[in-house]
């Protein structure tokens, strides 16, 4: 039986991490070019006796280069599939234990080897971006890393809420309708989570229907990465205005704690 902690972790990988493959394939010019005209289905899954399908997974539908993500959904006959022998092995692999994934990669089933290699290139690109220890030198890569982390963290909080994680659920259940956001000044790189009476929904970009209740705002991508990668001190960054909290600090602290909860599961 899969433990609750492993289940939380797996759902975060399926529903918050793997969807970043679409973001990376669209935002990296070299990778985007490789998928011009490509039509295929890809799936990443793990054997799971507790799932009705016998597997837990997420798949991707690419039609003429356009990606659609099917979160936490199993496709019976994808064009290519990487399937881990257990949920625990899948979690370990995405946390950096490459040994847990060698068997799955060697046994990967594919009808389109050339296209599958392109998919693996996106997967490897994501691994490299999310495992960064310090900010990349070029701004384009900084932008992509920040975007990925913003999307992952906000989606991750919402996923944990839907799974009934106690700390996250307590936060959402007692909350009126509020939006918490992450943003980088003078750019379109932003993400948010809207919560109300136990329900939650995350989104990409700037929330436009109303002003967010709280926004954690950075002055540039490098400053954002200083906090996201834990290479900068929060107090120093705040004093220097590399980071600004738009809203009450006590609510920012709650939001920040939950961002750390998500990070603790997927790192």
What does this structure look like?
The chain is an alpha+beta fold and 267 residues long. The chain is 47% helix and 22% strand. The chain is built from eleven helices and ten strands. It has helices at 4-17, 20-27, 29-34, 87-94, 99-106, 113-130, 139-162, 166-173, 221-228, 234-239, 249-266; strands at 40-47, 55-63, 66-70, 80-84, 109-110, 178-184, 190-196, 199-204, 214-218, 243-246. The protein has a five-stranded mixed β-sheet with strand order 3-2-1-4-5. A five-stranded mixed β-sheet has the order 8-7-6-9-10. Strand 7 (190-196) and strand 8 (199-204) form a beta hairpin. Helix 1 (4-17) packs across helix 4 (87-94) and helix 7 packs across helix 11. The longest helix is centred in the middle third of the chain and has 24 residues, at 139-162. It is globular. The two termini are 22 Å apart.
